[in-house]
Design a protein that fits this description.
78 residues; mainly alpha; two-stranded antiparallel ribbon; 38% helix; 8% strand
Length: 78
Amino acid sequence: MERFPIVLIAIMMIATFTIIPVSKTLAAAKDPFLDAGFIKAREQIPALKFTLEDLDGKQVQFKDFQGKVVLLFFWTTW
């Protein structure tokens, strides 16, 4: 039981020295996308209105996914 306070102090010191630098780094980053090298669009261009068939053959309109993240992957074989 004598080692418990020493271990507890060591854990608290490690946590202190790792959490403070990480929190300062996160606070300094205003926009992680800009920090990663992405650029902001000059203007917002609305998406085109179109309809596609899903894998079940059902018609899906792009406007059905408004407000959600959509990944379009057009794949073709030549």
